Structures are given as C-alpha cells and as structure tokens.
Known about the structure:
The protein is of the alpha/beta class. It has twelve helices and 21 strands. The protein is globular, with a radius of gyration of 23 Å. The two termini are 30 Å apart.
Amino acid sequence: MRHPPRSVLLAAAGAVALIGSALVPVVSAQGATPACTVEYSVTNQWAGGFQGSVTITNNQAALSSWQLGFDFADGQKITQGWNAKWSQSGTTVTAANESYNGALGTGASVTAGFLASWSGKNSVPTAFKLNGTTCNVDAQPPTTPPPTSPPPSNGTAPALHVSGTKLVDASGATHRLLGVNRSGGEFMCVQGYGIWDGPVDDAAIKAIADWKANAVRIPLNEECWLGLSNIKPEYGGANYINAVKDLVARVEAHGLTPILDLHWSYGQYTGNSAGCSDVHATCQKPMPDAQYGPSFWASVASTFKDDPAPVFDLFNEPYPDRATSSTADAWKCWRDGGTCPGISYAVAGMQSLVDGIRNTGSKNLIMAGGLAYSNDLSQWAAYEPQDPVGNLAASYHVYNFNTCSSESCWNSTLAPVAAQVPLIAGEIGENTCSHGFIDQVMKWFDDRDLSYLGWTWNTWDCSSGPSLISAYDGTPTAYGIGLRDHLRALNP
Length: 492
C-alpha cells in the first residue's frame, strides 16, 4: 500500500538502545588528527554469524579511490557485503571502493557493511590500513562485542509450516493468519523521525490482540536494517534491528504471528507508476534490488532462523509489469531478477531471495506476492520459486480500487493458486471509510479457509488511506469496525 501525505504520518518515536555493537575508538595522545580513522561495529550478531560495518574517514589529501585492509583474529569469514568490493585471503580482509563511492575528500567519510561467520570468539580487528596508511594511530585498545541475545523464545506464537494447501502448527492443526498490518518501520527511519509511527509497547500490542487478531505484518526498510550511511545512526543498523527484535518478541508474547515484510528498498526507478525518483529506500520500488536486497534477507533470516514463529514476506508489492508491456518479461523478472525491461537497477528475483534465506539455515514460512502490486496472481503458479524446504505461500493484496477486486476475478485467478499452495491476503482494505468491500473479501476467503490481514493499524485519517483505528487503544474507525467485529465473531 502507498502511504498518506507526509503531514499525516509525522509522529514521535521513542529512543532505542544500542545493543551488541562494538566501536573502535579514535584517540590521539598527542592531540594530532590521525591520517585516517576507522569505526568498526558489530550491528547484529547471532549463533555462527554477524553483521558488521566500517565507517572510514579520510583526514589526509583527497583520494580518488580507496582500499581498506584489516585482519580478523578469530577465524571470521566474510560471506557477502555492500558499498565496497569485499574479499578475504586467510585472515586478511580487503574492502575496495565501488565505482560510485571512490572519491573520498579531506574530512569525508564512507560506510560499508558485510555479513560474516564466526565461532568461539568475535574479537574486533585491532589495526586498519587505508591505501597502506595506518589509521587510528594511538587509538585505545578495542573491546570485544558482547554476544547478542537470541530472540526471546517465551512467546506462544505458533511455529507454522505448509502442509498441502494449508498452514498448520507444530501439532498439525490448520491455522489461518487473520490480523492487521502495523505500518511505520518502512518510512519513519528513512525520513529521520524515528523507528515506529506511534506506540508499539505491550499495551499497544495487547490492543491488537483484543481484536482477536492472531497476526501482525510489520513493514521494514532495508537501508535502515543494514544501517546505510544515509540513515541517521539512531534509527539505523543495530538500533533498528534491536527495535524490530523487541517488537517481534512482544508480538509473539501475545500469541500473534509476526510477518516481516521488505516494504521500501534501494534502486532508482522513474518509469511508469514510479513512487519517487530517489535512489534511496524512500518509496515503493517495482522490484527488490540486487545490491542490498539479498544482504537484507540474509541478515533478517540469520537473526530469526532459530525462532520458527516469524514469517518472511519477500517484497511488499512488486510491479515490474508497469515497466514493460510484456507480461512474460514481467513474470520472468519477478522470478529470476537480473536486468529487467524498464528497470534501471539490477533486480533481485524472488528465487534468489528464497535461496538466500534458505542458505542461512532458516526454515521459516516465506510469502511471495505477485505482479500489479501483489494484486495479480494469474501466473504465480507457473513462475513459483522453488523452495528446498517446501515452506512457501502465495501473497495477495486487494483494495476496492484494484483491477482484480471482484468475486469473478478471485474465482478465475486466486482459486487455482489456492488449490496448489496456501494463499494469504497480506493486505486488504478500501478507501471509503466503510467496510462493505472488505466484508466481501473476508467472506470469499472465509469460505475457503484462507488468511487475510487488514491495512493498517495506524491512526491516519481513513479518507487519506485505509486506517483501522483512531487511537492506539484499539478504537476503530468506521472502516476498522468491520474487521474488528468480524475477527471477534470468528473467535468469540
């Protein structure tokens, strides 16, 4: 779903503590400025792996290209990275500039990130060289990052997996995902206002549970998760990751299934139906990008792979069909990525994202939405990504203003998909400040024992977008009362 005007969205957000990060301090005993400084941080850590970041500041003459070198002490191995060409030989790691960030003026900084494996200890490197010059001269001894605590496991959310065309829990009982979307994590951080739009404390999650919802979809921003340099540090990297982990823990503690969704992503697109001209993750793009998308999902999957409750929604609303007149090309782009017609950046296809998640060892349930902002599933089955663990569901979005918004379309295009895999309507809604349309949607999905989630649990004016509530205590809008009363009727 696209969002209401900025004036509707501004809201305060609480500070989030930085946990699991280690910085190499830069101190000169003589008071002189080092030729270069490097700040190294562990922004996220889990059993066997971690996400790291280096921020390089050049204090000498301007550079037209740069190369950073350092050594790992405990056998850590780089597996992938971004914003630099990463390589490793033995213990020695090298990060060389990309074509777009080679210029490093006097006083300028650049940040690059990576994923790596570790075992036993994860000590911070003690020395860094930029183009052969030792950085952080006279720096204080580095500290070893404390291990990041695994996601809390004391919640009661079910561990879901696919069984034929149904979702089932660990006991084998059929389970439908019925709930709401909680928007905010995709836009607040990149706009520099916070992490969440409104409260996400225990009382706020209890209000969702009181509607008899059993799932919460949480839109995310890949640049904020990866802590890229355009994001304010207080809202990116470790701060953002820990805020997401905290929210997931609270959602699970109320027995609700958290659905983590890649909503806003990197890549410049100015073609048909473009949401913005910005290369950064400030709006909905037609497809996930190959530059950061796989790293985002590898990090998210590694973070939650030992917790079977979270569900991974690969990409909010793909629309490669708006960039090309060829339906076949659009579906091929959706599945395979690469160079896609009408899209200027390299695309990560759904297959590569599934593979990246599974390569971490994660077996969590995955959702994949179709074309036309996830409203077109007409060829989803023909282009279905292959999942080695067989835990994949189709995702569908529907609003009263979509092309496929009638029972005849649902019968012809959704029913065949639902006959092969579980079908989840990740977003349902209408822009009428009423609930007549979603009443029809819910009946069609109820008749087939399918899942759906309403957009959105935010206190926006329902005339500017489908907003379920007018207060975070769960007070419904005229639109939201339809979903609330229906969920309560299903689970009295």
